[in-house]
Amino acid sequence: MFVSPAVANCVNFNATRTAHVDAVVDRNGENDTLTLHLGGFKPGLQFDLFTVQRSNQNANGSPVANFTNFGLAWYQSDVHIAFDGTDTVTVKTILLDQIFGFDPDLSLAPTNTFHVGFWFNDPNVPFSGGCEPGHTTPIITPFNGEHHAGPLAFITRPDATTGLGPLCTNPNGSGGCNP
């Protein structure tokens, strides 16, 4: 996973301990297990973890031009950074190659959420730390249970060839994923 450049200085423990996230997904028959190992974070930070349809970063880390939104989002877990700047989060659900949502009432066809990202639980945390250059007020997003979260902290990037997120491990060549 990759830090959102706008908030990089908000999450780092200090100048020598840079925040990083290692994500491992194990395929386990009926469901998968996503384990995030977080380190180098400022202690006490809280985030909300989602799978989302789209990333705001290209495969090379540059921002997606004219990015409008993350698309369909699926709340997965809370993330709480301990006093030592670490956390481990485990989510057990269907993830690899098949994670999707739909809503027939809204005529929303099945939509995959092949990216993983997490947002600040409190919109005031990065703002009060002076980490949102160019903003005079906190950025408020719907990415928590109260629908009053802060900006994106970390997200996955798409595959350079397929354009799909890393939760698609078996692309079908026509923009989708084989189960």
Secondary structure layout plus pairing:
Layout lengths: L1 E2 L4 H4 L8 E9 L2 E9 L6 E7 L20 E8 L6 E7 L6 E4 L4 E5 L2 E6 L3 H5 L23 E4 L24
Antiparallel strand pairs: 1-10, 2-3, 3-6, 4-5, 4-9, 7-8, 9-10
Provide an overview of this structure.
The chain has 179 residues and is mainly beta. It has one domain (2-155): Immunoglobulin-like, CATH 2.60.40. The chain has two helices and ten strands; from the N terminus they run E-H-E-E-E-E-E-E-E-E-H-E. The strands form three sheets. It has a five-stranded antiparallel beta sheet with strand order 1-10-9-4-5, with no helix packed on it. Strands 2-3-6 form a three-stranded antiparallel beta sheet, with no helix packed on it. The protein has a two-stranded antiparallel ribbon with strand order 7-8. The longest helix is centred in the C-terminal third of the chain and has 5 residues, at 124-128. The protein is globular, with a radius of gyration of 16 Å. It starts with a strand and ends in a 24-residue tail after the last strand. 34% of the residues are buried. The model has no long low-confidence stretch (mean pLDDT 92).
